[in-house]
Amino acid sequence: MDHIVRGVLEFRENVYPERKDLFGTLIEDGQHPEVLFFTCSDSRIDPNLLTGSSPGDLFICRNAGNIIPPHSNETGGMTASIEYAVAVLKVRHIIVCGHTDCGAIKGAMDIPALKGLPHVKEWLGHCRSAMEIVRERHGLSVDSCLDAKYLNEAIEENVLQQVQHLRTHPAVAAKLATHKIEIHGWVYDIKNGNVRCCGSNSVGFTDFNDYYADVISRVTDNPA
User: Fold this and answer.
1) Does 102 participate in catalysis according to the annotation?
2) Residues annotated in the binding site for Zn(2+), as ranges?
C-alpha cells in the first residue's frame, strides 16, 4: 500500500490544487460526460490514460471481460448504469473496449478449467456466443476448449457480441433508432498501444486511424 498512500499524498498536495477549478466546476455544474466507456477490470487498462481524457469526460463501467449482459427483467449493476448514462446523463457515444491478453476470455475459451469458480463461470456464460462463433468458423466441436492461437479472434468476437447485447437495452435501442447515440467497439493492444475498431453493425475490425479518419483530420486541423 505504500505507493497508493504516497499517490494520495501527491494528489492532495500537488495534483488537486492544480486542477481545483475543474473539480469545483464538476461539483457546481454536475457531470456531463459525452461517453459511456465499458472496459475490463484488468489492472493494465487505464481508460483516461488511453483516451487522454479528464475527470468528467467518461462515465466508466468495468467488469471481468468487458461484458454487457443482454437486457432482461432482472436488474443488475450494468443494466442500471446503462439506463442512467443514456437516459439521464444523455451520453452521445458508448465505447465497448476489450484488450489483448484478456484473462476473462482465456477463461471463456476453457470453461472446464474454471472449476471452483462458480460465479466466474456463470458470468463468462455471457461470452458463450462469441466462443461458439469462433468454434463454428474453424469447424471445432461445441464442447471443445479453444486453443491459445484463437485468443485474439475470441477477444474481438467478444467485443462484437457485447456490442450486440448493448443494443437490446431499451434506452440504447431508442437512442439508436433516433440517431442520438453511436456505439463503438474497440480492442486495445497492451503491447503496442494500437486500437482496432468496429461499429454497432460491424462484422469485423479496422485500424483506429482508418476507422476515425474523418475525425482525425478534423482534430488535427483544429487542435484543442
Assistant:
1) yes
2) 40, 42, 99, 102
